[in-house]
């Protein structure tokens, strides 16, 4: 059916990547370049009374020191989001109040990195230490105010109260939760906790800048959001947008961590001031401590249900630890509700309440999953608890109660991102098939019989086995907010330039966007020269986040390619001397349709067509530029099944097998789609079992290296199998939805449910470290 | 000071300080295909072959390996003349962001050069120093398996 | 950060090297992995050991002599090729990662003795000896090397010496959740068996308070006993490792699981030899 879609096409940058030929930000070196190092606060909360940089400035090779003393105090948010941002303006580049261990004190620009590093040690900072808030549950009622008199304000009209340390607050209700809950025969009330995590993109954050031949500022950066970088740098450095160009070269993974504008304003200021190139590359420790993280969460679920398992009322109350600044505080919070509650759309009384609080700990930010990961931990378990209590098979339960094609959820409208959401009807889902295939492939029913607390296999055995599952949904782009655009022009050999604002952060979007254009124009993928993410040469795109690239940027490319097709057909028809409705495209040619009764049965190649349009008659450039805004955010679905073994003597959980069935609409590139799912699943498992931030009593992160943080290597992964089960989304390119985020959300609830199956106990706190697991095993039920 | 090395089969004099790691020296001298993910020996992005053995170049002081034979990912194969393993990596989807790829290729190459038919557990052990956050390793392991079977089928060693 | 004015020396004889390291601030350089971790500014000179011809493994009538410059992977390879030194190789192959094992040396690891060392437990369990040159030249057991404070003196480790005979039952393990992670502790057990009777035993753990612990009471208890799973319950009271809490694990958790693993390993040995 398709020629270039749903194929395992090799990434267009693949060979260049594996031969080390591609360039990443830190690979750019310029003559006369300055190197920047940052001094970070060692205190969680302190006021800087003075900075003495005189000794440092006298060191040979030191060129400049930036601090609150010479950098204008302009409020902004580091969150790379659409404008005006839903995150509060509560950050300055270099301020005089330090709000977490890792906050920016000042920056040194020097001739070499070594000099810059040594100069940091020569800077004398006089701190007045302030009492910190190190536990997020204590924040709202604390006497300590983290953003006091600093002018922090919300950029859009939303609730914000710095005097209560509240960075965000969201409330939504449909029906009447309280009444329905009180009237329910059965009730569950349970609290869950999820922890901090680092994105661990292998490439650390970096930015390089220089002044071009005409005096403009060029920034090369590891960013997921080049256009937001341009806008935000312009705001902070007070340089007109017209004078800034932002280029995203290859980047070494993002996962949300590079949706933050952290380094770019610093290199920009140094270059703008000194007129010299400047480079800043974070060390791994800086990435852990000073960049952004996954928010820590507490979720409280209240569920009222009938004997037969029908849920009458559900309340999700979320408390989010925003850390020192409120980047993405509001939107991650909203997503905790909006990506979970619609899944069981037949619940009539739903309530979501959420608060994001400031603490003197590292800042949260965007992280693959974005609120859904945090909320599904509890959601997936309470559904399991309801099924256990009511004697329902959970597979059948989801089949009955989960949202279906043609259905909607009032939550879509009730919970937006800083404003009302967008009502929509789900029109594509293969969820039932996902449930069935997953159950079959994981051996769900056989294993359910075999395992369980009282099974012969588990009873009196030190090692206990269990199987668990979780049903998930996410979104694809932010409806009526995110915008993407594409530009295509034709070249005289029949090739095309495809220029997109979309940001390939390793996901392969350059490739799949070319595949989409290929399919429309029926010409091979290698005919497309893809240029992406250069604010001078590519049209606007909000960036790589919210699972938007394939669905949103892909649709922009599709629409654009269709316009090109029309132009090509027109020229072709003219060349063939037939009317427009008698021609079609076929294999890089315009041909007279076989059905046509015109005698002129010729064909003209794309090459000839472009040559004709350049040089012969009615000359013009075949080209088109198109924008796209999505009216909806169609959810992808996934079902995850996991089998585990618990060593009840040590508390170690071993994952034995993992099966995921995923409905991402049409997978444009099957290899890349599987790869997205596999990467997310492995990240999800290691988050569930190991990853965490451990802090000292003073709020300093202690495990700030890969070795101490703990990451899976190839040698640690369990067998994982991903099954892509298509549906067809009419509003997406060739039926595509999204796949990048959803699959990080399954491991937490699925493993916890498997643990329950094995031991009869529940895990309420992630990560499931062996010591915690052992404590739970020894506790009374 | 200038110190000589044999890099990718060429004798080169590189500018360095006596306290610098091989990684820093290589990158400062234009061998930016060697990546830095952690500088602590914990990610494998900086792997190079030192006398045919994979080492973390961030964990080697450059002065201690002067005159030695060093091979980076480009010494294994280039864009215009890729090694079989590189072609298979790209064809299998073993590269997403590609930042781990130079190190992964060095590790896989050195594994297959020693042992062209590694068992699964030998493959996993051979990759145990390389982190990848994007792929979940599944396609990387698959690429090494495929490389091994192509090498075997053609009865050749990793070249 | 290491000093930019760092001096490098490449002596070709042990006496030259011994002389060089007498000066304050001058230390030996083997794999360099520890030196890079500490990044001590106080180091002014590094004496590279690569020309000292310490990269050998010699097999003599009664013993193996392993030069200090041998890397973990070289030892593992030798073990595979010659079907010997299996306990040590098994322990070392769990250390760090493949590329790091190509750099980490026996000598550097002995002198360094990190908490996560995979080297010490098997060496102590094997009653390995070592030869050092310098202030206290001589041959010592690895155990006295660490316990007598000798480890701090200025010297060069030349080699370790292991008995050739491997007529004992053994087990090694490291506790870590991931393949490439700093282990919390390492355990090594060796039992010399005479039929079903235990003639000699060594039970060692590293990563504990005071770096390592031999459970001598347990060892004594085992000697003369016949292999039987009943021993497991009785041995428990003699195996009491003491740990320090860290940010991830409490000392009591570590103590609990270290005991579990001791029993596991012993029971495996017993089952295999019953
Ligand atoms: C990321 C990482 C993970 C690691 N994981 C593990 C692990 O899991 N298990 C494990 O066992 N090890 C592990 N190590 C290794 C360990 O931490 C030390 O780095 C290593 O043992 C040091 O060996 P080296 O040869 O590199 O010594 P060097 O760094 O060269 O030297 C270390 C010290 O020994 C001295 N020295 C060197 N050679 C001699 C000699 N012949 N005589 C006397 N003194 C000498 C040096 O002067 C120095 O003081 C890991 C290392 C890293 C970087
Ligand atoms: S950069 Fe060398 S191992 Fe990470
Ligand atoms: S492909 Fe991105 S880290 Fe491996």
Report a brief summary of the structure.
The complex is a heterotrimer of chains A (781), B (159) and C (274). By secondary structure, chain A is α+β, with helices and mostly antiparallel strands.
Q: If you had to describe this structure to a student in words, what would you say it looks like?
A:
The complex is a heterotrimer of chains A (781), B (159) and C (274). With 781 residues, chain A is of the alpha+beta class. In chain A, the strands form 6 sheets. A 7-stranded mixed β-sheet of chain A has the order 3-5-1-12-9-10-11. In chain A, strands 7-15-14-13-8 form a 5-stranded mixed β-sheet. A 4-stranded mixed β-sheet of chain A has the order 16-24-25-26, with helices on both faces. In chain A, α5 packs across α6 and α8 (329-338) packs parallel to α9. The longest helix of chain A has 28 residues, at 549-576. Chain B has 6 helices and 5 strands. Chain B is 36% helix and 14% strand. With 274 residues, chain C is an alpha+beta fold. In chain C, the strands form 3 sheets. Chain C has a 5-stranded antiparallel β-sheet. In chain C, strands 9-10-11-12 form a 4-stranded antiparallel β-sheet. Chain C has helices spanning 14-20, 33-38, 72-82, 86-92, 98-101, 106-112, 120-125, 142-147, 216-222, 231-235, 251-273, and strands spanning 7-9, 26-29, 45-48, 57-59, 63-67, 129-134, 138-141, 155-163, 169-175, 185-194, 197-208, 211-214. In chain C, α3 (72-82) runs antiparallel to α4. The chains are: A alpha+beta (781), B alpha+beta (159), C alpha+beta (274). Chains in contact: A-B, A-C, B-C. At the A-B interface, α1 and α17 of A face α3, α4, α5 and α6 of B. One FE2/S2 (inorganic) cluster (FES) is lined by residues 36-39, 41-46, 56, 58 of chain B.
Question: Keywords for this structure?
Answer:
heterotrimer, B: alpha+beta, Ubiquitin-like (UB roll), 2 domains, 5-stranded mixed β-sheet, 6 helices, 5 strands, 36% helix, 14% strand, C: 274 residues, alpha+beta, Uridine Diphospho-n-acetylenolpyruvylglucosamine Reductase, domain 3, Enolase-like, domain 1, 3 domains, 5-stranded antiparallel β-sheet, 4-stranded antiparallel β-sheet, 26% strand
């Amino acid at each position: 059916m398709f020629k270039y879609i749903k194929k395992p096409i090799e990434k267009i940058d693949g060979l260049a990547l594996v031969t080390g030929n591609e360039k990443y930000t830190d690979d750019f070196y310029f003559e006369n370049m300055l190197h920047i190092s940052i001094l970070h606060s060692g205190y969680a909360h302190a006021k800087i009374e003075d900075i003495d940089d005189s000794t440092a400035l006298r060191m040979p090779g030191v060129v400049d020191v930036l601090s609150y003393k010479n950098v204008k105090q302009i409020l902004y948010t580091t969150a790379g989001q659409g404008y005006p941002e839903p995150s509060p303006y509560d950050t300055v580049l270099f301020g005089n109040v330090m709000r977490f261990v890792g906050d920016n004190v000042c920056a040194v620009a020097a001739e070499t990195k070594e000099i810059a590093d040594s100069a940091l040690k020569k800077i004398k900072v006089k701190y007045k230490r302030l009492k910190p808030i190190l536990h997020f549950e204590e924040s709202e009622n604390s006497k300590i105010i983290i953003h006091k008199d600093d002018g922090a304000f919300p950029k859009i009209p939303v609730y914000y109260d710095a005097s209560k340390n509240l960075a965000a607050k969201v409330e939504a209700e449909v029906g009447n939760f309280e009444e329905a809950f009180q009237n329910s025969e059965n009730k569950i009330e349970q609290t869950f906790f999820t922890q901090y995590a680092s994105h661990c993109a292998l490439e650390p954050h970096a930015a390089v800048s220089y002044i071009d031949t005409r005096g403009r500022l060029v920034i090369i950066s590891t960013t997921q959001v080049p256009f937001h970088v341009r806008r935000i740098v312009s705001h902070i450095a007070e340089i007109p947008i017209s004078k800034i160009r932002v280029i995203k070269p290859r980047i070494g993974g993002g996962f949300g961590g590079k949706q933050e504008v952290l380094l770019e304003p610093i290199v920009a200021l140094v270059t703008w001031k000194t007129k010299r190139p400047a480079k800043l590359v974070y060390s791994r420790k800086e990435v852990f401590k000073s960049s952004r993280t996954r928010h820590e969460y507490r979720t409280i679920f209240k569920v009222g249900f009938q004997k037969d398992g029908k849920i009458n009322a559900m309340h999700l109350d979320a408390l989010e630890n925003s850390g020192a600044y409120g980047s993405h505080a509001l939107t991650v919070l909203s997503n905790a509700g909006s990506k979970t509650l619609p899944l069981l759309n037949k619940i009539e009384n739903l309530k979501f309440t959420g608060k994001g609080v400031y603490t003197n700990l590292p800042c949260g930010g965007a992280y693959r999953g974005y609120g859904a990961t945090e909320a599904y931990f509890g959601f997936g378990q309470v559904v399991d608890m309801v099924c256990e209590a009511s004697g329902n098979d959970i597979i059948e339960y989801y089949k009955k109660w989960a949202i279906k094609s043609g259905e909607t959820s009032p939550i879509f409208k009730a919970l937006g991102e800083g404003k009302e959401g967008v009502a929509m009807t789900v029109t594509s889902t293969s969820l039932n098939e996902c449930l069935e295939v997953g159950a079959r492939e994981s051996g769900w029913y056989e294993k359910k019989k075999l395992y369980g607390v009282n099974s012969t296999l588990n009873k009196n055995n030190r090692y206990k086995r269990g199987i668990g599952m979780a049903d998930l949904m996410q979104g694809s782009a932010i409806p009526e907010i995110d915008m993407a655009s594409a530009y295509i022009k034709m070249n005289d050999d029949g090739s095309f330039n495809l220029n997109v604002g979309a940001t390939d952060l390793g996901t392969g979007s350059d490739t799949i966007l070319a595949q989409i254009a290929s399919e429309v124009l029926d010409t091979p993928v290698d005919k497309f020269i893809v240029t992406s993410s250069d604010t001078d040469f590519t049209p606007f795109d909000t960036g790589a986040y919210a699972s938007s690239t394939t669905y949103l940027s892909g649709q922009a490319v599709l629409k654009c390619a269709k316009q090109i097709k029309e132009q090509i057909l027109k020229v072709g028809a003219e060349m063939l001397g037939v009317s427009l409705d008698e021609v079609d495209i076929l294999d890089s040619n315009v041909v007279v349709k076989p059905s046509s009764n015109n005698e002129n049965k010729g064909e003209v190649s794309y090459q000839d067509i472009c040559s004709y349009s350049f040089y012969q008659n009615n000359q013009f450039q075949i080209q088109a530029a198109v924008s796209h805004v999505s009216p909806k955010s169609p959810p992808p679905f996934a079902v995850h099944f996991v089998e585990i073994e618990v060593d009840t003597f040590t508390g170690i959980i071993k994952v034995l097998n993992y099966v995921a069935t995923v409905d991402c609409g049409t997978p444009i590139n099957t290899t890349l789609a599987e790869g997205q799912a596999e990467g997310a699943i492995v990240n999800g498992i290691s988050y569930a079992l190991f990853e965490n931030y451990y802090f000292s009593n003073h709020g300093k992160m202690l495990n700030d290296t890969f070795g101490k943080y703990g990451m899976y290597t190839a040698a640690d992964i369990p067998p994982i199998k991903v099954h892509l089960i298509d549906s067809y989304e009419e509003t997406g390119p060739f039926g595509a939805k999204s796949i990048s985020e959803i699959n990080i959300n399954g491991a937490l609830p699925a493993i916890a449910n498997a643990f329950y199956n094995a031991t009869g106990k529940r895990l309420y706190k992630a990560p499931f470290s062996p010591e915690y697991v052992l404590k739970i095993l020894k506790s009374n039920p | 000071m200038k110190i000589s090395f044999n890099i990718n089969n060429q004798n080169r004099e590189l500018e360095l300080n006596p306290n610098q790691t091989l990684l820093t020296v290589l990158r400062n001298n234009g061998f930016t295909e060697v990546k830095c993910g952690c500088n602590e020996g914990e990610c494998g992005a900086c792997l190079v072959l030192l006398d045919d053995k994979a080492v973390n170049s961030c964990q080697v002081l450059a002065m201690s390996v002067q005159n030695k034979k060093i091979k980076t990912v480009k010494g294994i194969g280039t864009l215009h003349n890729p090694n079989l393993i590189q072609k298979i990596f790209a064809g299998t989807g073993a590269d997403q962001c590609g930042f781990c790829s130079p190190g992964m290729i060095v590790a896989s190459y050195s594994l297959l050069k020693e042992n062209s038919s590694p068992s699964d557990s030998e493959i996993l052990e051979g990759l145990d120093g390389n982190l990848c956050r994007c792929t979940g390793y599944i396609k990387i392991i698959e690429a090494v398996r495929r490389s091994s079977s192509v090498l075997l089928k053609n009865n050749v060693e990793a070249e | 950060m290491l000093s930019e004015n760092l001096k490098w020396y490449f002596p070709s004889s042990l006496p030259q090297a011994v002389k060089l390291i007498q000066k304050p601030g001058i230390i030996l350089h083997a794999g360099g992995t520890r030196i890079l971790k500490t990044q001590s500014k106080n180091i002014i000179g590094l004496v590279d050991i690569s020309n000292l011809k310490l990269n050998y493994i010699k097999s003599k009538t009664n013993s193996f002599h392993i030069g200090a410059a041998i890397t973990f992977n070289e030892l593992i390879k030798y073990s595979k090729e010659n079907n010997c030194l299996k306990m040590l190789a098994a322990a070392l192959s769990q250390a760090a990662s493949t590329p790091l094992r190509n750099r980490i040396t026996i000598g550097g690891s002995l002198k360094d003795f990190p908490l996560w060392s995979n080297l010490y437990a098997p060496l102590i369990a094997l009653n390995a000896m070592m030869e050092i040159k310098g202030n206290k030249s001589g041959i010592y057991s690895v155990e006295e090397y660490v316990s007598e404070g000798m480890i701090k003196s200025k010297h060069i480790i030349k080699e370790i010496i292991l008995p050739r005979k491997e007529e004992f039952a053994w087990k090694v393990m490291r506790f870590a959740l991931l393949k490439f992670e700093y282990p919390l502790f390492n355990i090594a057990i060796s039992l010399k068996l005479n039929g079903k009777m235990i003639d000699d035993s060594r039970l060692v753990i590293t990563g504990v308070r005071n770096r390592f612990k031999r459970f001598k009471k347990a060892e004594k208890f085992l000697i003369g006993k016949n292999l039987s799973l009943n021993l497991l319950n009785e041995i428990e009271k003699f195996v009491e490792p003491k740990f320090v809490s860290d940010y991830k694990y409490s000392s009591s958790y570590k103590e609990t699981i270290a005991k579990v693993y001791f029993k596991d390993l012993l029971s495996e040995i017993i089952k295999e030899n019953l």
